[in-house]
Sequence to fold (330 residues):
Amino acid sequence: MGKKVILSGIQATGNLTLGNYLGAINNWKKMQEDYQCNYMIADLHTLTIRNNPEDLRKNTLELLALYVSAGIDPEKSNIFLQSHVPAHAELAWVLNCYTYMGELSRMTQFKDKSAKHADNINSGLFTYPVLMASDILLYQADLVPVGEDQKQHLELTRDIANRFNAIYGETFKIPDGYIQGVAARVMGLQEPKSKMSKSSTIPNDAIFLKDEPDVILKKFKKSVTDSENVVRFDTENKPGISNLMSIYSAITGKSKEDIEKEFEGKGYGDFKTAVAECVISELRPLQEKYKELIQNPDYLEKIYRDGARKATAISENTLRDVYQKIGLVS
Ligand code: TYM
Fold:
């Protein structure tokens, strides 16, 4: 039996955060040995907000360099840009015709993003989960490694696939989410009841993968905690400390109980420094590799060209089958 298939992606907006790393990329890296992995840069999804064209181009290449710096190996995984593979937009159109307005209106991310960009609630923002479903279904993915915030989109993907299969017979593999680990939802350092986000405008709320060590230390030192001064896991009453514990646990592999013991009798100052130090050393090799790669556009171009070729071959098979089944003349 062949290897199981993975597909996942990240939007090309600005800087990646520690949340994207712990919730997604860090898991992707571990899956490369055992799965056939497809890791995409969701540049078409990025169009749902307004971008300066030069920034979008720059962010896309930077994200590609970050994938590779974080340990996604182009020899093992298929890395590509969504816009280079026409089947994504083509299948999205077809699946739009099998997705209901009511389903899309229930998506919490649509509601959140509409509130955030009230002056630009475009139809791409509304149908965005259908493009995401197409990304996944084209590759017949078994598993989709994502953070907690994408769970609802995955459920919709399964619903659309089941609906299509029920009408036309087995066409799409029904994918499972792979939402794993203690850091599937990393929260903001200033607002620990909201997720850490690339687009956060609150100063010191997000740790960016490209932050210098002194900046990382400063952000953790300033992170919001509580007045109890006891390192104890309690998301309800101690969201700040609990979030720091999850980050520390995800990186060191220590359990929540071990962490509570390790910091018994010590103050938050010591704990915050320890969390910052483990994040700094986790990110150091990534940052060094990134500085090298970003100077090498030819190598990055080779990666996305090879990726586009492989991704096109896989996705066209599925698209052809869909077109044939729904009655388009081939
Ligand atoms: P995006 O670009 O918002 O986020 C990329 C990945 O990072 C995860 N993530 C987090 N995990 C833990 N804590 C956080 N604070 C945090 N913030 C983000 C997200 O869950 C995601 O895994 N629609 C997707 C991109 C996409 C996609 C796909 C993903 C397009 N097509 C197909 C999977 C399969 C998105 O906007 O993710």
